[in-house]
Amino acid sequence: MSTLRLRVACRTSEAEGICSYELVATDGTPLPPFTAGAHIDVHLGGGIVRQYSLCNAPHETHRYLIGVLREPASRGGSRAMHERIVEGAELEVSEPRNHFGLAEGPHHSVLFAGGIGITPLLAMAEHLHARNLPFTLHYSVRGGARAAFRRRLEAAPFASRVRLHIDDEGTGLDVPAALAACPPGTHVYVCGPAGYIDHVLATARALGWSDDRLHREYFGAAPAVAEGGERAFDVRIASSGRTYTIPAGRTVVQVLADHGVDVPVSCEQGVCGTCLTRVLDGVPEHHDLYQTEEEQAANDQFTPCCSRAKSALLVLDL
Fold first, then answer.
1. Helix, strand or coil for residue 62?
2. Which of 3.40.50.1970, 3.30.360.10, 3.30.110.10, 2.40.30.10 is the CATH number of 3-94?
3. Does residue 225 carry a pLDDT above 60?
4. What share of the chain is helix, strand, coil (3-state, %, to 5)?
5. What average pLDDT does the chain have?
6. Do 269 and 214 contact (CB within 8 A), yes or no?
């Protein structure tokens, strides 16, 4: 995967625990284009690679803008961004990729953002406004001090389409009411904590919304443990025929790396899809949040960074 060398032109405190980073090419050249909902992989050294959504307007080619929440239980990524990455620092990043794109068509869009989940939806709002397409943006935070990019939203030309919901101020989001206000054919886009996303999607489905109009992106996955605890299983590499045992407490990616089998990874939580691998035989035990329920039911691919096996053996297309 090709990478870019970018410089931090500006670092800004956007809210409590959230900073934005404006990234530009070190030689001043235009950056590869991106579409609303896209993200980049940021390489932070020591094998740490983290994904951050681009939140500037997609028509901009001179910069990428990302927002980073400092996680109290950081696995190293957000802590490194907040403690080490300052203005003038250089970063290696991937070209943009998009697993959360807008559906084509003139339909209405309703955007639901929870906390730091506002970042990809900012780019969507910018794109929809530029195309003169109808949309509403619902942005939910626990307290006013946590509302990142608030000044930008209040000054935006689409400010009248933004609804800010602050739990501590008694203006929390009423999801059924928000969905009821949408015209027929509306598409939902939701990003934020897993519980927030699940609530929005479950409410929409209960109201009769079809899955083809529901789009989501998770930022993190809660640890998933199979009923009865993790069990050991084997994986066989189709190209070499070699078989490796995956013990409880270790992932497929970790064991394969020990034996020189490289599987590209990024989030290591089953969120991004970077490590998605084809399964030729066996039944996976899916712990990812990247695939849809239908894709998981097909059992022909899985995320070896977190998923395991129901069968004694998985044969992988590696």
1. coil
2. 2.40.30.10
3. no
4. 25, 30, 45
5. 91
6. no
